[in-house]
Amino acid sequence: MTFNFTFKTAIAALKANKSRTALTILGIVIGITAIISVMSLGQGAQDLILGQIQGFGAKTIVIAPGRQPQGPTDFAFLFADSLKEKDLEALQRKNNVPHLAKIMPIIFGSESVSFEGETYRPTIFGVNNLFAQIYDLYPSEGRLFNEEEIKGYVDVAIIGSKVRDQLFGNAEALGQRMKIKGRNFRVIGILSQKGQLSFINFDDAVIIPYTSAQRYVFGIKHFHRIVVEADTEANVPATVEDIKTTLRTSHGITDPAKDDFFVETQVQALEQVSTITNVLTMFLAAVAAISLLVGGVGIMNIMLVSVTERTREIGLRKALGATERNILFQFLLEAVILTGLGGIAGIALGVFISFVTSVALSRTLSLDWSFVFPFSAAALGLGVAAAIGLVFGIYPARKAAKKDPIEALRYE
């Protein structure tokens, strides 16, 4: 019996019960769709996050207060107040950190901003005048604030394009005074539409001197972050060690295990994020794959029903010379075709859902979220689908192959 004949026979048997065939492969379709969607969106999210981190530059070092999170209980330390003005001054001394090229304290939070009855709640960033160089971000209108305005706690602000549209509409924004926490901040600069950059949506931001942010807006004396840029990429490891030594001296820490700060380079951040996103994606894919097992059980159940319904056919074919191997192969092939069709349909549906979701996220959230076709997941999905067809098709196929032809012909 040729493969071509067996294949045609299998297709004819499946076509004889189209509704049942469609419902049988639905579980496989759902499972493969879920796996493809999770893997595609997970890879897209990873690419977005890694791109945001890389936007900082390889020479950038971030200092954060508190203990580096190792588990859920450690996240409270992210809101610690261990980075102070004395630390900033210590890090700026050349003899402490000789390879330091730029340093910028950051204070951030959300506050209401108003202008002539219009109110909006953007993110407020308190920084120094190096933020434009570090983020490669300059006003399209107006200017940056200067060192004198920072030291003098001057109420000046640079606003993002969305903030301008929400507060000022078509009116002139440059030179106007908007109210933050009861104080009038004069708009001296407007950023062009930039979107998301290094986890910050600058279109929805108000940038003010960090001194003004500390004293007038947030009422704090510490920093949420300190960003340092080394003079060369090769000097980043030495700069990290100098930063740690300087801050331990400043905080009176002799045991590194008691550090109340942590330092991260972009390489470390990339590795950590890659590990986390990969583990999370694989976990979600594994959860989605459970539906494949459910689909496999459904296929075995339907194949058993098919064997029972086609008992006389099996007996007739055996009487005409078909061997147990022929019958076994016939029913196995039907099971593999079912799962194969489900796998192909699931891949197509998963790709469609992932593409539509990626486009929607890019447009609605203004994110550079790219669609990624997961070739490995597609190949894995097809392979797993075929394997499920074989595994869950073996028992019904063996049951059909072992039927006695005389008893099968007598079956009513």
Short recap of the structure:
The chain is of the alpha+beta class and 412 residues long. It is 56% helix and 16% strand.
- Low-confidence blocks of residues: 72-78
Radius of gyration: 32 Å
Q: With helices defined by DSSP (H or I, 4 residues minimum), what is the helix count?
A: 13
N-to-C CA distance: 27 Å
Please tally the β strands and state the result.
Answer: 14
How does the major sheet shape up? Answer: 12 strands, mixed
Shape: elongated
Work out the count of structural domains: 2
Estimated structural class: alpha+beta
Element string (H = helix, E = strand) = HHEHEEEEHEHEHEEEEEHEHEHHHHH
The average pLDDT score comes to: 79
Give the fraction of residues assigned to helices. Answer: 55-70%
Strand content: 15-25%
Can you describe this structure?
The chain is α+β, with helices and mostly antiparallel strands. The protein has 2 domains: 3-53 and 272-410, no CATH class; 81-259, no CATH class. The protein is built from 13 helices and 14 strands. Strands 1, 2, 3, 4, 5, 6, 7, 8, 9, 12, 13 and 14 form a 12-stranded mixed beta sheet that branches. Strands 10-11 form a two-stranded antiparallel sheet. The longest helix is centred in the C-terminal third of the chain and has 44 residues, at 266-309. The two termini are 27 Å apart.
